[in-house]
Write a structure and sequence with these properties.
heterodimer; A: about 160 residues; mainly alpha; 2 domains; B: about 150 residues
Chain lengths: ~160, ~150
Amino acid sequence: MNRQNDIAYLAVAALAGAIFGVGLYVSQMVDPLKVLHFLDFKGIPSGTWDPSLALVMAAGLIVMFGAIQIGKRWGKPLLDTKFSLPEFTKIDRPLVIGSALFGIGWGMSGICPGPAISLIAFWPPHLLVYLVALFLGSYGGAAAMTGWSDKRLALAR
Amino acid sequence: MTNFTPLTAAIGGALIGLSAAILWLGNGRIAGISGIFGNLLPAGRPMVWRLTFLAFLVLGALAASWIIPGIGVGGPAGKPAALAAAPSWFGGGTTIWVAISGLLTGFGTKIGNGCTSGHGICGLARLSTRSFVAVGVFFVVAIATVTITGIV
């Protein structure tokens, strides 16, 4: 059953997207410098450390943890026949290497993908360069994965 | 901790969690931005809901900056949003620095299957072992990168 172009399905995606954008603005995670001040642990002794990001994560996690429990009781989402779970379940090398490379990219700029998209609303200098690079990097990652993805799936299950 | 903004952080974080909850309980989808963004291509995958989600994410941030102005950066009353300048030891300039950051983030989140939202919020809430590993790795590496590069 493919309901992914139904109006209700798209309305849920729109509502979730809008609330995500509001959350990023309100939490100020749209500000790369604020994120960098969290990641800068040298600022703990000097007093410039900003723990806000940890609180953003904690609040988000609590709400989502509740939703996961509700979903378990329902057995399936409202508008589809099953929850779309990631196909990988085991710890493998691409997971660790990919997360480490992402950590370098994130630490270099204080930008992760969500804030990068929300920053389109405020269009700071250099954002276009970042977004094009993000897309090319993701595309390159997909190309790198196609060769070993079947084998990886077999191993990861 | 002069920069700490606990109230807006908690409210904003809860809203991000609510967004993830709605997408999960409504459509059964993980609100992972790198996945939603990275799966726009190749064409043929369901992309209409992904584009819708991303477009409304931008609109939500924009609307919030007008309705509740001046919380941080952006909008009519906020500080202008800005990317961090490349550290002075890097001779290549901010454009190249930003490009490298974007390439690494795009490539890394693709092969690692997730970012701060997909692994960080949704994965941890599902108690996924892969997400605990991913989140531990990218936080430690990001903190080390900020320390080593001295970007702030």
